[in-house]
Amino acid sequence: MRRINILALVTYLTAVGCLVPQKPAPAVFGGQGASVSAGKEAPLPAESSQPKPSGPCAAPAPASDVALIDDFEDGDSKPFKVFQREGWWYGASDATEGGKMTPPSGQFAPARLTAPLASKTNAYAAHFTAEGYRQWGAVWGTSLNWAKDGIRCPFNASAFAGVKFRAKGPGLIKVQFGMPETVPVEYGGSCKSNCYDSHGTPVLLGDKWDEHVVPWEVLQQGGWGAEARFDPARLLNLNFAVLSKDLPSDFWLDDVKFLTQAEANERSTHPR
Fold first, then answer.
1. Ordered structural domains, the chain, with CATH
2. Residue 139 has pLDDT above 50, yes or no
3. For the stretch 207-219, what's the b/e string if a residue is b when 16 or more beta carbons lie within 10 angstroms of its beta carbon?
4. CA dist., res. 166 & res. 69, Å (int)
């Protein structure tokens, strides 16, 4: 299998009890074992048979109470600064010769909005394009870590009910959350084979700005990789991916936030 181009910038993608800087992050889908053989499906292992976290991150980190992930108004490559939350925006693609993506790997930066979309309080958004990738596609995302005194652990978003964001396409993207069980050991996770099958869901974008809501309960794995139960208390990254079959892609992203429980309750009571 051909190696995947990865973003050199991402040295903080994941850590499970790590005390040293991490290696650059690999792509989060289309990796090892992207197939399911007929007749070989197996039930999800009993919880007691799955590896148990150990070390400083054996127990979940303190739950975050800040919903905003990033509105891009600071114009840099980090998510919105939150106490004891650490992360970096990144991008990655497969190794197809001639493939192109913006921002290029290692050069993430928000784009300035033009009139009439821009305002005094909303001047920047993320703008992503990709074309020509024929293996698995392209992905942009942010790492999510709880960090204190040099220790980095999975991020605890259990106080929230999902994620929401504004976006404009048109096109189909996939929203994904990585956890230790789907991230290889060499990148701070606990996955040892068939990695990168992160929990996610497809989102169809229109040609005008609109808000999209992704509750936890709609997230699922592709079914070709290491199986894991989704746990919002142990997140390692949030990704916006485009599969090769859905290229070329050109979309905008803004106001990425966790969905609060109050918002989720309001939506269930008054569905749109």
1. 61-269 (2.60.120.430)
2. yes
3. eeeeebbbbbeeb
4. 12
